[in-house]
Amino acid sequence: MLLPLAVRTHADHLLVREAAELALGSRADGAPRPVRTRYYQEFPYAPPPRPAATGSAPSPPTSPTGCAAR
Q1: 35: which of 4, 9, 20, 22 fits an S-S bond (Cβ 3.0–4.6 Å)?
Q2: Over the range 1-15, which residues count as b (16 or more CB within 10 Å of their CB) and which as e?
Q3: What residue segments make up the domains of the chain, in order of their start?
Q4: Can you give the pLDDT at residue 60?
């Protein structure tokens, strides 16, 4: 089973892995099913991850002629 997930940090990676192990249940001997996690680099056909949203500086005000105000 392959689930594409956006995992940005190591903590997210561990949470996703634990959730997958819980969702898949356990083997007959009671041990959790092994879950193999992969990184974006292993899927070159996937779109690149979007950058984190950051506050960008507003554009400078323009004059009625369309030129930047000084």
Answers
A1: 20
A2: eeeeeebeeeeeeee
A3: 1-27+35-43
A4: 57
